[in-house]
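Incident log, structure service

09:12 report received: a user says their structure output differs between two submissions of the same chain.
09:20 pulled the input from the user's history:
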Amino acid sequence: MRSSNPVFSRRGFSRDNGYAGFNAQQPQAGGPAVGNPYAQGAANPYATNPYAPADTQYGAPAPVRTNAMTMDDVVSRTAITLGTVAVGAVLAWAVLPVSSTSYGLAIGAALVAFVLAIVQSFKRTPSPALIIGYAAFEGIFLGVISEMYNSVWSGAPFQAVLGTMAVSGATLIMYKQRWIRVTARYARIGMTIAIAFIVVMAVNLLLVVFGGVEDGGLRSMGPLGAIVGILAILIGCFFLTLNFKEIEDGIAYGAPREESWLAAFGLTVTLVWIYMEMLRLVAIFSGDD
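09:34 re-ran on a clean worker, output below:
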């Protein structure tokens, strides 16, 4: 099964033909499909990866390899990426005043971050420079937007950060306790809902821009907007579980260390999604529109 996380769409931890650039072992007769990371007993997609021995199966202990990805690698790269986002946000908040010019700069930074994310998604290998560049411009965008929200709803960014941490932590706990099981069916249903949500939001945005609806339509600051915001956060949590699964599989299968940058990229994109939706939700529940 192809990776479900958008940032792993070109080269991820779970691919139809195993690890990108390598071929997975053929399954036994009647066994699970090749490359399905969610099927119990699936063949190791890193089987012919030089970073993993050919006879290693999922769940079996593998020799310690200094060039294989570890959880420490993922944590350190994620800390660098999120730290870059935070530094960019703080600097933008401190330097750029709330104004139409700052809003324009924020939109420009968001577009640059989007382009860098797309370029990285289509690269065959993770590029730390692209990923850190994405984080820096995303941080500028978040800093300006957060300051604008704070000017109207005082304390909203701080509450949104706490909410993002709480939701992400709860999702991680539920995943580690196996209360959430990432299966093929779970991924298909979740992706269907996520794609439908994105399409509907895109249509809603077009209607708002061209005057088809008023007050933001589905993204209004009222009860309907709150319901849509909660759904968006749940979709973000769904993507987090896919991130966790892909990281877990990458470590278990012996993915190369450079893939930890891709893991950090995926987590950052998802956490930014959750933060932005949490910021809107806090503003809605503040009741001061």
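09:41 both user submissions now match this output. Likely a transient worker issue. Closing.
09:42 reviewer note: Helices lie at 71-95, 100-122, 128-152, 156-176, 184-209, 223-253, 259-286. Residues 223-253 form the longest helix (31 residues).
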